[in-house]
UniProtKB/TrEMBL annotation:
This is ABC transporter permease. Keywords: Cell membrane, Membrane, Transmembrane, Transmembrane helix, Transport. It is a multi-pass membrane protein. The chain crosses the membrane at residues 69-90, 102-122, 152-176, 197-219, 262-282. One of its GO terms (cellular component) is plasma membrane. GO terms for biological process: transmembrane transport. Gene3D superfamilies: MetI-like (1.10.3720.10). It comes from Teichococcus deserti. It comes from the Bacteria. It is found in: Cell membrane. Belongs to the binding-protein-dependent transport system permease family. Residues 65-276 form the ABC transmembrane type-1 domain. The keyword Translocase does not apply. InterPro entries: ABC_transporter_permease, MetI-like, MetI-like_sf.
Length: 289
């Protein structure tokens, strides 16, 4: 059997599932965005780019897009930095490091709905854990963390970072353990400090892992909105509305499937642009050998 045929046979089932549950639905969504929403009395008609034109005049869409960009800028770098710090910590010779790894990874395995209800208690004004700590350490009064426009989006960012950092830590930990100790020993014998070894040896070798984590972190920043739907439903006054929450609200609350398809098309375009930028900027500095 030719080698290329054997490879395609091995990849075939995965490619079939990927096409059936990812690519075909995405193309179907882009196609439906060119039609109006069907009703029992009126079938869908071709409207071209009218749904996208309506989005351009929708202030809630622009606010959701801006919120989502802020959400990504706030959660992606923080999740990556925290994951790397935790991986470096538990990768060393530390007593109880197994327990520490489990503790850091535990938020990842919790359902997002359970996480939302847990943090809903933390953010409760006056008697929640956050208010008790701020009153004890800073002397602040009660704060409505998820009911105020100034703090609601930041509160949602904190939950996302807490939930995802442990998951990304596992990838960094595996990458750190794959680094040949001889490279670190050689740099140490040359007189390099620990900080220089990290910046010149460890961090460049973690490049492929960082690129992989960065792409997934950006996707998650646009995809994981369960806690927002449970805790704020996009409020107050759309302060925590993201593209995915707006898609859900448009498609399943108002049953405007055409407009929801157009929103999904915008979301896919934004993710494609960001991914292309990540691969073009980070890919040049990433070495796999």
């Amino acid at each position: 059997m030719p080698r290329f045929l054997h490879a395609w046979l091995m990849l075939g089932p995965a490619l079939l599932l990927l096409a059936a549950f990812t690519h075909v639905p995405a193309l179907a969504t882009l196609w439906h965005a060119l039609f109006s929403t069907p009703t029992p009395r009126r079938p869908a008609v071709f409207v071209g780019l009218n749904n996208y034109a309506a989005l351009a005049e929708d202030p809630i869409f622009w606010q959701a897009l801006w919120n989502n960009l802020l959400y990504a800028l706030g959660t992606v770098p923080m999740s990556i930095a925290l994951a790397l710090a935790m991986a470096l910590w538990v990768n060393g010779r530390l007593r109880g490091r197994t327990a520490m790894r489990i503790a850091f990874f535990t938020p990842t395995v919790l359902p997002m709905i359970a996480v939302a209800n847990l943090w809903l208690f933390f953010y409760t004004p006056d008697y929640g854990m956050i208010d008790r700590l701020t009153r004890l350490l800073l002397g602040w009064g009660p704060t409505n963390w998820i009911g105020s426009q100034e703090t609601a989006l930041g509160a949602m960012m904190a939950i996302a970072v807490w939930k995802e950092a442990g998951f990304f830590m596992i990838f960094y930990l595996a990458a750190l353990q794959a680094i040949p100790p001889s490279l670190l020993e050689a740099a140490s014998l040359e007189g390099a400090s620990r900080g220089r070894i990290f910046w010149r040896v460890t961090l460049p070798l973690l490049g492929p892992t960082t690129l992989f984590i960065a792409v997934n972190a950006v996707i998650n920043s646009f995809r994981l909105v369960d806690h927002i739907l449970v805790m704020t439903q996009g409020g107050p006054d759309n302060a925590t509305a993201l593209l995915m929450t707006y898609i859900y609200e448009t498609g399943f609350r108002f049953w405007d499937t055409a407009q929801a398809s157009a929103l999904t098309g915008v979301l896919l375009a934004v993710l494609a642009v960001i991914a292309a930028l990540q691969f073009s900027l980070l890919g040049r500095r990433t070495h796999y050998r």
